[in-house]
Amino acid sequence: MLIEIDFNSDQALYIQLRNRIIMGIASNELQEGDVLPSVRQLAESIGINMHTVNKAYSVLKQEGFVKVDRRRGAVIAIDAARLENLEEMRGELKVILAKASCRNISRQEVHALIDEIYEGYGGV
Amino acid sequence: MLIEIDFNSDQALYIQLRNRIIMGIASNELQEGDVLPSVRQLAESIGINMHTVNKAYSVLKQEGFVKVDRRRGAVIAIDAARLENLEEMRGELKVILAKASCRNISRQEVHALIDEIYEGYGGV
DNA sequence: AGTTTGTTCTATAAATAATATAACAGAACA
DNA sequence: TGTTCTGTTATATTATTTATAGAACAAACT
After folding, report:
1. Can you say how many angstroms the Cα of residue A118 is from the centroid of all Cα atoms in its chain?
2. A2, A4, A101, B43 - which has most CB atoms within 10 Å?
3. Residue A71 located in a structural domain
4. What pLDDT, in 10s, does the model give residues A61-83?
């Protein structure tokens, strides 16, 4: 999977990395059981520090997207049974939709955008 | 309008403040022309520093949610003509929906959540 | 035996966030 | 006119976060 990092972004590198991997899982570029590059490999190929990648992997582990196998490294393993999810998502959507509403972006437009994005994620 | 701040949140205080005000506008608690408390007043009532409130107001000004009148202070004035909006929203939604998709939250559930939230924002 | 894995520790530099104190010009008001 | 309030600006300090670096560890694979 191709991982691009924007060094001019105001987002932390490890957050960008985490986001890319989560989106990779959603879009099926990464599947259950797939092995992520080692922290050293990925750091090398992107051109950032090992510890930055390690932090991204740690966050992904804590959020339930990967498990770490001593022998194989970081493996995609999704813990779908996370109850906080809906509430967490509600909080994030509240802000985004508030901005949309202020800017006269209609509910229909948002629904269309949702469908378009979900299309790229399996489509369920 | 009631503004609550979570001091235990990992979100910066000025971001929380900004978010609350944007949500206040979306939910019509704040309307075009309404005057926000002065930076000193609001800081006092919340129990934070004046500069933190000032930063929130500055961000809101730059994002096109308030204008600052020398005499009256910060006034709600929405600049709806911001073209970056949809693209900005797409980027944010991509991550949120990726997480949702990974956790088997269906497109229908997301649509329902959108409707529920939009309900509180005028409903258009 | 040697390599690679994630992990941990210590350390440093830069950026960000929050606080504090002070001062300024413009406007409102008595 | 003098006082008060407005956002704004400047300087400074502290704490936290982010990213880097080098070193070392046990576990597992070749």
Report:
1. 14
2. A101
3. yes
4. 999 999 988 778 899 999 887 77
Cα dist. A16→A22, B87, B91, B92 in Å?
A: 10, 17, 12, 12
At residue B53, the pLDDT reads: 96
Q: Which of B79, B90, B107 to mutate to test the interface with A (most CBs of A within 10 A)?
A: B107
Which helix (H) or strand (E) element contains residue B67? strand B66-69
d(CA A1, CA A49): 19
pLDDT at A68: 87
* Type of residue at B10: D
- Is residue B19 located within the same domain as residue B51? yes
Check A107 against B114: CB less than 8 A apart: yes
Nearest nt (C1') to B15 (CA)? C17
- Alpha carbon of B104 to those of A1, A121, B109, B113: distances in Å? 22, 11, 10, 15
Please give the residue range of the domain that contains residue A103: 84-119
